[in-house]
Fold these 3 entries.
Entry 1:
Amino acid sequence: MTVVRVIGVVLAVLLIGSTTVSVMRSLIIPRASLGFIGKGVNTVVDKVFVLATHRMTDYKDRDTALAGQAAVYLLSLLVVWLGGYLVGFAFLLWPGTHDIGRAFRESGSSMFTLGFLAPSGGGSTALDVIEAGLGLFVIAAQIGYLPTLYAAFNRRETEVTLLGARAGSPPWGPELLARTKWGIYGDRDDLPGFYTTWERWSADVAESHANYPVLMRFRSPQPLSSWLVGLLAVMDSAALLLAIAPSRDRLEPRLCLRMGFTALRHLGRAVGIPSTEDPDPDAEIQLTFEEFEVGVQRLIDVGFEVERTAAEAWPHFRGWRVNYEAIAYRLAYATDAVPALWAGPRRWPHEPMPPLRPPSRLPTTGTST
């Protein structure tokens, strides 16, 4: 039994150490990744939700079910952390109590500061105090972590909600340009300011979501809205603008694109999705030329001033999109984002959803009598 208890103590130290590292990486240390405990919990929770929603054919029903995934992940992670400390300290107390059942009861009493079981000795007292401190720290840190998450969520969703009027629901890059009609009302053009706003939005998301990856699972309040698909639509609109209207080349859409695909790469690294830092601008992309033609035709239909044909603009657009398409599609696939146009495949059979457009409500003109 002595050898077994020694092995138990060694495993307990490893378990307590791993749990502490996971807590620090998830809640305290900036620029940290999920770690193997966080990744394991995320994988299990994700598989549970995939199984729970795989028979749902209506996207809104699926979105409603998936809205709880982030909360379940946070609660599961807290349970795993507390469970790790509970088991770890129980094995540390075992040699002093000579009873594994009592060791677990004492560990539970100390973890939640219930005090229903007295320590069995001086060494046990020290371990109980340490465990009680760690238990309080983990619970308090998780509670303090929530306001940070929701503050970042609210900052993110403000611009995403505003995007619905510009780019439709779900958002689509060509729709954004079509509704703006830049070139027809050039004296009222606000696209430079819009792209500047989304450049800063991308930087904020890169910082907050890379440090707290669970934010990627926080879904937008409206089922057809998505922060990731919104970013993709904004980047597509900037790339499309530069491709079809070279005379209107501006710094703002270029900086928005640069910050956008930089943010996506940061998020990919945080969750273990690799990306190419310097892709070949002539490389193939998943979006087809036929799909691109449909987007260009949408602009032509509303009178947008197009300076290049779809065939002429395609190499330029593809040269921009190769920087962000693969990582955006993988993130959208992993987070079950709304299946919008130009947004890639999902984990369930679906048809891309075009943006909803408000019906025309022009007043009937006539002569009053």
Entry 2:
Amino acid sequence: MAETNQASAAWRGLHVAVVMVGFFALWQLGVMLMHPPEYILPSPSEIFQEMVSAPLWYLDHAARTVGATLLGFVLALAVGCLAAIGIVYSRLLENTLYTFLVSLNSVPKIALAPLFIVWMGTGLSSKIAISFLIALFAIVVDTVLGLRSIEPDAIDLFRSLRGRPLQTLLWLRMPNALPSLFAGMKVAISLALVGAIAGEFVASQAGLGFVILSAEGTLQTTRVFAAIVLLGIIGTILFFIVDGLERLACPWHVSHRARHRGQKGVA
């Protein structure tokens, strides 16, 4: 099983690397053929040189963005799971909290960002709050779906064995909900990154969002693209970290078995 997981991770890493290298190669070729001005579209080689010129500076800003993203994501995961359990077990919460979350999700979060800056200031807490708010809905919706996707016969069998509600939750509903939970986590981790950047756009003195905003004001397009490329790399890494955790937690799920058979067929 360990060798299978390592081989699968190696295949995924190879695929991602090939796609990214191919994308940047086509980008470099297009710039070489069309010769656009650097302030409109710099080449990947120029972007790489920009990153190399100040690696610690970029690393510091990237670390601040990643920190806000992860804190907001973890908070959304904890609150979202608790809210989903409450919604599943309480008709009152389903009619109130769930409806409120649906309504809140329809409001553009970037419109709420200035309020969080007023309430919490321009520090890290406001970025975490925006990241949390954007990521929360995906966690709640998918976890509720997973907790409810239980065969009635399985619940009846558990009750016939005198399983208590807490035991039913921990040993029946939660394991069944894991695939749906991880599906929500994959969406939420990307949304959490978007939320952190949105907060940095509104008011910040650090982070990749601040780098983009300040460089855009002085037409430093290469620096803008460098920050965007770093965000793409960070988002990809975070997504595949969650995907790897899903494989460790749910190796039994049919989607992983089907993908493994497909990889063996290709090999």
Entry 3:
Amino acid sequence: MDPRISALARNLLDYSLDLRPGEKLLLEGETGSEELVRGLITEAYARGAEPFFELTDPTLRRAQLLGATREQLDREMTWRLARVKEMDARLYILAGQNLSEYADVPPEIMQQFGLARKPVKDEGLKKKWALLRFPTPSAAQAAGMSTEGFKDFCYRVSTFDYSIMSRAMEPLVALMERTDRVQIKGPGTDLSFSIKGLPAIKCDGKLNIPDGEVFTAPVRESVNGTIAYNAPSVYDGTTCESVSLTFEAGRIVVATGTPQEKIDAIFATDEGARFVGEFALGVNPYIERPMKDILYDEKIAGSLHFTPGCAYEDICDNGNRSAVHWDLVLIQTPEWGGGEIFFDGVLVRKDGLFVLPELAGLNPENLV
């Protein structure tokens, strides 16, 4: 076993999940993550917890989806929901051998799959939970890195001392919670909305590994203007690029990008898919460019994501409900065209760097 597995497992169980003796832990990993699941089982037992596990193979899931009916998917999710209800903590590990495994599954089937599993996802959010990407050759290829280089990067960013980042996030949380109007400007982007009365949540290694964002949600009907995202996004195995959204009174009225038919299908899932459930600023100093993996890309230092779809009901709820939660990313560093963010008319971040003194601790040079 890679000796870094134990360090990562300890970080996940002790810091991210705060796993306690007697608690039931559900480990759900995709094929390719067996080594980590084994390490997590060992470490869970060492803490007096009860580990349960399931390994899923995306190639087998694809074969099932190609012939599945909504009734079949609902039946499967019924027993999955019952299992999650029995757990105290849940850890999902992304791996697999092909990030595009579901690319040729018809969009209408993926829509029904998303709707069927939404109750399971909602129940999981009520537990202590965390999400992790385990390094595989497929993910390394998507990121444009060697297998060993990507593995080293993943372990470095996943075992980062997130307590340092957590302390640096406090002034940003306080500022966002007293802010009303937000304005985002950049190439192809002029967007405004309100975040008044909604909490700001720091993501400091407790939910995702890697982590590094502070998020809230817009007041649902307050969003107006256009945002042009510049990071590619893989959704259900399909890479979408150059996505641009125009809003009126909170609702997406124009959505363009490539491939257009996939984008149209996503926003046709349900009415909530055309409203936004999350607004976040990314601050992880080790993540500097898109890797076609939203778990990394939404944390890019100097980025933001503005997310069509469901809000986080239990922690930051603007009332929007959807089977979709699509974290689309806009990078505002100079290499990606720059841009500005204003809170109540005051410039907060320019070209990816915070300009207010109380927020300087979140700039990369102060976190590395």
